[in-house]
Design a protein that fits this description.
about 500 residues; five-stranded parallel beta sheet; Aldehyde Dehydrogenase, Chain A, domain 2; single chain; seven-stranded mixed beta sheet; 2 domains; globular; Aldehyde Dehydrogenase, Chain A, domain 1; alpha/beta; 14 helices
């Protein structure tokens, strides 16, 4: 749905109908760059809404699972085409409700297009294995099978890309879904679901319920109807989701926090490294799980790098993402801005040096938004909280190292393990770092952001619980293996007991 100057009230999508919440309550969706801009009114749903959506998904599963995967894929191919046709209005809606600059929201929508095209292709490529049996006149193979109803719980920072990472592979595998988007970005979620509806996805196969975590997220995690929970968000909330899901032994996929590092060696192309650290640290206002919030620089080039990095950070234009001149948008909310301000004060108290930034912007064009200066800390010890804890804002901590080994130790010295990067011209160093950084993603001579949809996405340690999104790996979350044996011998064969000895 295109942005309108009038304020629209939007419904939940349950069993093929757009409808109000049983609670009778709603919430406002406002522009974080200009809180005077009311984007729309959305449903503040309750457990009754969730139960209705889960019942619809459960009923729809019985017919959707029997639709041949190539036919399901054809519908998803149409979805990708339709999103591509509406890329610009969807991008503008996203910038208006989420804040990141327009070029970045175009990339977000493009990622949803790419993922949907890719997963549509998997409708004809959900390969199993055929293997020789150990017995005569017996055939052995494996096939994928769907699981049932999936709960999809997504964050606000990539409000169309991340839902596509979860919903599209769930659908192509034959599952049905109940989708809870972040309350800060419900319009982008609605735009995505509306396309699924228009592309012909049958009623009940996709359902969307908006609202807060306790009323919506908790029952989606704990219901016995749900067989898969796929969650992206903070590690704190992910742990709660995991605990709620555990009693019913459902499959749980968690994609959580990150405290990612860029390591810059003494032989690095410093100009390229500065470009990468600016994009990695301040792209999406630092509101990415893959943001490069830590930079470790070899002592031989530390001062030269810091001088250039700080100088460039000071020139970044902070403003409304719909303004073509803006390079850094607002924080998503007052609460997130308060978190950034809190950590800036923590950094100061810990003894780190504010090399640039450190302040809220609240005058002139920034008066009605949640803006903060791009901030660089130097003289940071790796054990400081600003170097250990996820801030999710435009704050980068720069640390000094004496060797590659020390840089790797600093890089690994946090509770997260999502993404890491190294800038070096030495191929041997690059491969050592690629081997020894315990992360799910690694880059050489590029920042910690830039994942592509055809490779697995996810992290180690407190970033995730072992599953991966994107690529063929996503099918593992939303399907189960079934091993099949066909005996055409016409007699009882007792597997290992009757294996012939030659």
């Amino acid at each position: 749905m295109a942005t309108s100057t009038s304020v629209t009230t939007y419904g939940n999508y349950v069993d093929g109908q757009w409808k109000p919440s049983a609670s009778g309550k709603t919430f406002e969706n406002r522009n974080p760059a200009n809180t005077d801009d009311l984007i729309g009114i959305f449903q503040s749903s309750n457990r009754k809404d969730v139960e209705e959506a889960l019942d619809a998904a459960k009923r729809a599963y019985e017919t959707w699972r029997l639709v041949p995967a190539p036919i399901r894929a054809e519908m998803l191919y149409r979805v990708a085409q339709m999103i591509a046709e509406r890329k610009e209005p969807f991008s503008r809606d996203m910038t208006r409700e989420m804040g990141k600059v327009l070029n970045e929201t175009r990339g977000d929508v493009q990622e949803a297009i790419d993922m949907t095209f890719y997963m549509a292709g998997e409708g004809r490529r959900m390969f199993g294995q055929t293997v020789p049996s150990e017995l005569r006149n017996k055939f052995a193979m494996s096939v994928r099978q769907p699981l049932g109803v999936c709960s999809i719980i997504t964050p606000w920072n990539f409000p169309m890309a991340i839902p596509s990472w979860k919903i599209i592979p769930a659908l192509v595998c034959g599952n049905t879904v109940v989708f809870k988007p972040a309350s800060q970005t419900p319009l982008s979620a609605l735009n995505f679901v509306k396309v699924l509806e228009e592309a012909g996805i049958p009623k009940g196969v996709v359902n969307m319920v908006t609202g807060d975590g306790d009323e919506v997220g908790t029952p989606l995690s704990s219901s016995e109807t749900v067989r898969v929970v796929s969650f992206t968000g903070s590690t704190k909330v992910g742990r709660i989701v995991n605990q709620a899901a555990a009693p019913t032994f459902k499959k749980v996929h968690l994609e959580m926090g990150g405290k990612n590092v860029i390591m810059i060696m003494d032989d690095a192309d410093l100009e390229l490294a500065v470009d990468g650290c600016l994009w990695g640290g301040f792209g999406t206002t630092g509101q990415r799980c893959t943001a490069a919030s830590r930079v470790v620089v070899h002592e031989k080039v530390h001062d030269k790098f810091v001088e250039a990095f700080v100088a460039r950070a000071k020139t970044l234009v902070v403003g409304d993402g719909l303004d073509d001149n803006s390079q850094v948008g607002p924080s998503i909310s007052q609460a997130q801005l308060d978190t950034v301000l809190k950590y800036v004060e923590i950094g100061k108290k810990e003894g780190a040096t504010v090399a640039c930034g450190g302040n809220r912007l609240n005058d002139g064009p920034h008066a009605t938004g949640f803006f903060h200066e791009p901030t660089v800390f130097t003289n940071v010890d790796p054990t400081m909280r600003i170097a250990q804890e996820e801030i999710f804002g435009p704050v980068v901590s720069v640390m000094k190292c004496r060797s590659l080994e020390e840089a790797i130790a600093i890089g690994n010295g946090v509770e997260y393990g999502l993404s890491a990067a190294i800038y070096t011209q030495d191929i041997n160093r690059a491969f050592v770092a690629m081997r020894d950084l315990y992360t799910g993603i690694f880059y050489i001579n590029a920042p910690t952001i830039g994942a592509e949809v055809h490779l697995p996405f996810g992290g180690t340690k407190n970033t995730g619980n072992g599953h991966r999104e994107a690529g063929v790996a996503a099918l593992e979350v939303f399907s189960e293996w079934k091993s099949c044996y066909i005996d055409f011998s016409g007699k009882l064969q007792r597997a290992q007991i009757d294996v012939e000895q030659i």
